Amino acid sequence: MKPNRFSVIGFDSAWTDKPKAPGAVCVIRSNSDGKLIYSEPQLASFAQALDIIHDEQKRTELCLVGIDQPTIVPNLNSLRPVDRIAGSLVSWIGGGVQPANRSKIGMFDDAAPIWKFKEALGAIEDPEAARAASAGLYIMEVFPALALAGLNSAFCDRLKGPRYNPQRRKTFQLTHWHDVIETIRRFGTLAAIEQIEDWCNANRSLPLPRKADQDKLDAMICALVGMHWLTAPREQSMMIGDLESGYMIAPAIDGVHDRIVAKAREIGVPVDGRAQR
Fold first, then answer.
1. Which sign does the torsion angle of CA 189, 24, 55, 100 carry?
2. pTM of this structure
3. What is the mean pLDDT of each run of 10 residues along the chain (277 residues)?
């Protein structure tokens, strides 16, 4: 008998499959008593992530993978429509959206690891169906930068997005790292994830975070987004785009931002399955 009610796996894939620059995986589980627990984020390649996910399938009936990488990329060049919409908000808060198209060798060409990963995973890609499911393996695309804007209203203002990537030495700010950790602490505590404060305390005390630390942090954010998608009221999340041209799932606790709505209306892309008027 499988004891856990569901497992959410957050996977910051790093987009390519370089042994010296792996991604990271974090797991949040709901056990038979409904309590939420997490497994320490760990560095992982695509193959290692597959092993972790398959192990989680042995523990639970329902398993959702939230991956920080485009999972549907039909366009040969330029950006996907969902990238343009997300970019309208992320650029406003001071970040950026990396274009996803099939011309990016090693990321989205026919031989890219993401397609081999999805094939080996064999998950259903239908976020709305995942919310209604009691069993099965599902996958959905998430974007930590967009998620943070939905989790913390202080980030969702002109040039107020956190600069917490330690690899970008010119823009990285330790106070912003602390702000992201506190956002995770607050959100995780409200969700009653057991002992998440321990992880937050350990990461807040890092004197100089490394890129690997940020990968683990993003994996935690991916897992939190997946948990929120499954458990929170539907109106507190948004699905930008569709399953044909690409999409993203993100929290929208205060409602879908006006910039998202305006850009979606401009280029004719649905938000939450509806055309914007």
1. positive
2. 0.95
3. 81 87 95 88 97 94 97 96 96 94 95 96 98 96 96 95 94 97 95 93 95 97 97 96 97 94 95 78
| Strand arrangement of the beta sheet that strand 60-67 belongs to | 36-44, 23-30, 4-12, 60-67, 136-141
Q: How is residue 37 written in tokens?
A: 């627990």
**Residue 132: closest CA among 222, 30, 234, 58:** 234
Residue 98's DSSP bridge partners are none
Q: How many CB atoms lie under 10 A from the CB of residue 169?
A: 7
Look at residues 270, 272, 276, 223 and name the one whose alpha carbon lies nearest to residue 252: 272
**Tokens standing for 97?**
């959206």
> Is 238 within 8 Å of 141 (Cβ atoms)?
no
In sequence order, what DSSP letters do the residues of 120-181 get, joined into one string? Answer: HH--B--HHHHHH-SSEEEEEEB-HHHHHHHH-GGGSSTT-S----TT-TTT--HHHHHHHH
| Mode of pairing for the β-strands spanning 4-12 and 23-30 | antiparallel
Asked if residues 221 and 144 have their Cβ atoms less than 8 Å apart, the reply is: yes
Provide the total of helices (H) and of strands (E) in the chain, helices listed first: 9, 7
- Can you state the angle between helices 258-267 and 81-90, rounded to 10 degrees? 150
- Which of 75, 74, 3, 68 has its CA nearest to residue 32? 3
